[in-house]
Amino acid sequence: MPKPLPRSFYLPPPDTVAQALLGKLITHRDEGEKLTGRIVEVEAYFGADDPAAHAFTGKTARNAVLFGPPGQAYVYFIYGMYYCLNFSCEPAGQAGCILIRALEPVKGMETMARLRGLTPGVKPALLTSGPGRLCQALGLTRALHNGLDVTNPASSLFVHDDGYQPASILATPRIGIRKAVDWPHRYFIAGNPCVSGPRNSF
Length: 202
Known about the structure:
Elements: H1 14-21, E1 25-30, E2 33-45, E3 73-78, E4 82-89, E5 96-107, H2 109-116, H3 124-128, H4 131-138, H5 142-145, E6 157-160, E7 169-172, E8 186-189
Antiparallel strand pairs: 1-2, 1-6, 2-5, 2-8, 3-4, 4-5, 7-8
Helix pairs in contact: 2-4
C-alpha cells in the first residue's frame, strides 16, 4: 500500500508545495478500485494576501477547510456542473491551497472513462486534463470528499510519491480567474500532453 505524503509536506507556502506536488500521484479508492493519476499541472493560491483566492475575504462555511490543518482536500462546485480539487497548505489558520488542474492517468482508466461518459481507450487528456474532468474521472464530489485528510493512510483519497522527478517545470500566470491575473503561480510539467492550459511560459 503506498504511503501518503506526511502533513509536513503541506506546511510550506503554496508556491513551494505546488511545485513539489508535480509528479506525485493522487489515488482515490472507489468501491474497491484504485483510480490513480500523476499530477502534471497545478496552481497556487495564497489566502488572505491573494485577491483570486477563495479565502481572500475571510473564513466562511464554504471555505472553512482551507483554514484547518494542512493536507486536507478542499472540493468546491463551479458553473453549476463541475467540482474542483484543492489541497490545503501552510499551518492551521493560514489559508493557502493548491488547485489540481490536470493529471496524467496511471491506473483505472476504463473506470475513469465510464465516469466521464466516454468510450474506453480515449486519449488520456480527455480523461483528466482540466480541474472538472479530473474530478469526474476520479469520482470526487464536495459532499463525499471535502475535508478529507489526505495524509491519513485510511483516507479514500491520498497523495503519494513513486520517485518520479519532472525533467522540467514551467510557470505561467494562473488562468480562468479575474483578479491577480498576472501572478505567475501556475506550474506544469513541460511537454506533458495532459496539461490543460497553455504549454509554454508566457
